[in-house]
Amino acid sequence: HWWTSTGELLRWDHEWTALEIDVPPGGQYQQPMLLSMPTASGSYQLQLDLIGEGQRGWLHHPRRLPVQIE
Q1: Strand pairing partners for 3?
Q2: Angle at alpha carbon of residue 2, lines to 69 and 52, rounded to 5°
Q3: pLDDT tens digits for 6-63?
Q4: How far is 70 from 52, CA to CA, in rounded Å?
């Protein structure tokens, strides 16, 4: 999800990227992904969710990562 630097929702949904491996509980993994960036330059916040495709539920992570677009 994309948010403005002041916390206003800009875009809720975007591309999905499948994990290449199963990550065990407590495990770590870096996954490349494609994102549609906001078109205007400025400061934004990016929030990611993990969704279990074909399973019930998802992992909503409230942390937002700062992104600067020039």
Answers
A1: 9, 45
A2: 130
A3: 999 998 877 778 888 888 889 998 989 888 899 999 999 999 887 777 666 666 667 8
A4: 34
Residue 64 has φ and ψ, to the nearest 5°, of -115, 135
Residue 66, CA distances (Å) to 6, 16, 44, 56 in order: 11, 20, 6, 29
Question: What per-residue confidence (pLDDT) applies to 45?
Answer: 96
Q: What is the pTM of this model?
A: 0.71
The per-residue DSSP string of 20-55 comes to: SSPPPTT------------SS-EEEEE--EEE-TTS
- Taking the CA atoms of the chain, what radius of gyration do you get in angstroms? 14
Residue 30, C-beta contacts closer than 8 angstroms, at least 6 positions apart: none
Contact 64, 46 (CB under 8 A): yes
